[in-house]
Specification:
mainly alpha
Length: 290
């Protein structure tokens, strides 16, 4: 099927007998119908991807594979995706960020057992009170700075009971270190660049980001070559918005039959998928009947 599309000669093969003309015409018409489906699929794919280029059989096969990849991705991930998370090596960067986020979240949960984190004073005050407690001697409890530090410590601690000044100083320092680490993460320009508008500091969804990076890797591995169409497809799928991804994913609902896919795979990869494809076959069928 469809082998005649790459033939140099139109009309009847030289060796065709009179008895074989009918089946030959039927085959050409069947091929023309399949060609119509392939050309229609090309048009649907071009519209979904937002391209107006002429494409070949090889390009359509690539587009169908890209659509399969996008369709398998959770819809929430498609809405989460931003170009920076689809870049090469994004997966490694997201993994490193995830480790840092997990450590800070764990530290926050641990601190939250003993302290009301919503009531914490400023970073500067925490360090000032910790310094006051560390510097107080035996009679340090009489100083205003020490009394203030102990009062602040008690006001943010969720557990009752006496605590040594050295222990209170260490805990205030740990709280200050945590706040400083969270601020450092929140202001990290590399993380802002990596996550784009999806960066939410400590609340950043690294899991969704990892899924985006995995989708980017899968899309890139499918896009082989650097002809104009492939370059455009690469730019489209690695920088699309949610609506574009959903349009591409919807292509899977217009699945070509196994027979049509088989014939598409048999086409010369360089065959242009234009309306002339089916017209050529119909013209040959008419010529065979004449």
């Amino acid at each position: 099927m469809l082998s005649t599309l790459t033939d140099a000669q139109a009309g009847l093969p030289p060796s065709l007998s009179a008895e074989a003309i009918g089946p030959h015409v039927d085959r050409l018409l069947d091929e023309a119908a399949i060609a119509d489906e392939i050309v229609a699929a090309a048009a649907h794919n071009l519209a979904a991807f937002g391209s107006k280029r002429d494409i070949t059989a090889a390009h359509l096969i690539t587009m169908l594979r890209l659509a399969d990849i996008v369709a398998q991705v959770n819809g929430q991930i498609l809405s989460f995706a931003v170009p920076s998370l689809l870049k090469r090596d994004a997966a490694e960067a997201v993994q490193a960020a995830s480790v840092a986020l997990t450590a800070l979240r764990s530290d926050r949960l641990d601190l939250g057992v003993d302290y009301d984190l919503a009531k914490l004073p400023s970073l500067q005050d925490l360090r000032r009170h910790a310094t006051a407690l560390r510097g107080s001697g035996v009679f340090g409890f009489l100083s205003a700075a020490t009394k203030e530090a102990l009062h602040v410590h008690a006001s943010i601690r969720t557990r009752s009971g006496k605590i040594a000044k050295a222990t209170a100083a260490a805990e205030l320092t740990r709280l200050a270190d945590h706040i400083e680490a969270v601020e450092r993460l929140r202001n990290d320009t590399d993380l802002h660049e990596l996550f784009g508008r999806r960066f939410k500091g400590l609340e950043t969804d690294a899991g969704a980001a990892a899924d985006c990076a995995a989708m980017g890797d899968a899309l890139r591995s499918t896009l082989v070559g650097y002809d104009d169409v492939v370059v455009e497809l690469r730019q489209i799928v690695l920088s699309a918005d949610e609506d574009r991804y959903r349009a591409i994913a919807a292509l899977r609902g217009r699945t070509l039959s196994a027979a049509v896919r088989e014939q598409l795979a048999r086409l010369d990869p360089a065959t242009l998928l234009t309306s002339d494809l089916a017209a050529t076959l119909r013209n040959r069928a008419h010529a065979a009947k004449a």
